[in-house]
Input
Amino acid sequence: MSWEPPSPRIRELIREGARLALDPPEEWLRELDEATLSGPQRGQLSHDPALAAATRRANRANLHFWAVANVDRPGERVAPNTGDVPVAVARELVRRGFNESGLDAYRAGQGVAVRRWTELCLSLTSDVGELRELLDVSCRSITTFVDDTIAAVAGLIAEQRDDLAQATHAERRETVSLLLHGAPLPRDRAEQRLGYRLAGRHTAAIVWTEEPHADAAALGRVTDLIAASAADPHPLTVLAGEATRWLWLHGRPDPGALREQLTAEPGVRAAIGSTGADLAGFCRSHLDSLTVQRMLARLASPQQLATHDEVELIALATSDVEAADSFVRRVLGDLARAEPGIREAARIFIAAQCNASRAADRLYIHRNTLLRRLAQADRLLPRPLAEDVIAIGAALEVLRWRGTG
Output
């Protein structure tokens, strides 16, 4: 493509706009993230917190890359961004089984970038001639940069796919995918490829991080902790992505012990599925662990560990986050904004089957203290606790997993 340099005045305007784009308003970034993580082709990206985090990092990296290039050489063609972030995204897409169609997110981001850049240009000059040349050059620059970057990242994806095709984890992941999709794969062949016995009872888990640079060692340590908690010396581990591990165990981890142990690995999170028998249990448990992981992501929950047994009801109740928030406000009223100690007293009281002595023991407080807090909760609730126990308990659990309980 021929690339005629713009006039000196337009170069000056592009440099000025690019400097502003180096520090974009938070509104720009939110709109960019929403565009790249929504739509039928990109829904799977938004459901996976590690992939969603990688996509958000790529958005910022590409915006910064283009802006820096236009501060240094305004109006010149910008080379494709093949830095660390796009490489990491390519690796993640391949390991999750995505093809180049996952790069559709770049196109969605391009539309937002062009619109926001146009708004910025309108603030830089009111001269019609200058504005026409400024928009022509800069919008062509953005479009070409995105085209070139997509082509470069697609090449990286092809390279990553070739490399990964030879890896053991690729074979394991392919086998797991076949089993999860009900392919007629003989059990003995599947067990040989996985190095894992499919008979017996299974519990699946997902271990992941949303940190910018995945710490493989930390992911491995948490995987080992979960396996040790279930007393399984030979778990099945699948490298689902650079920032994610899938895990299957012949046993059931102890969530209480794990929560205490995981505090040593604050950047790593874990979702534990149900426990089930044989191949059906192997598949069901993994799907349940995905449900847990997606719920934590959907609610932006600060909880580091969750099990399907704990959150099955909450996952169903919060499938529509806006409806769940409306439910909480309606059921809890002023209690939703009360001191955490009052809300926790009501939650634990309900969890203890409304046994005050048992609830006080769990909270390590005197029974009379508990009763005073319950009386405060009753005054704040639209309906007395005794008349709406189930709904109030569910609403309090939603607050708990959202990190506001």
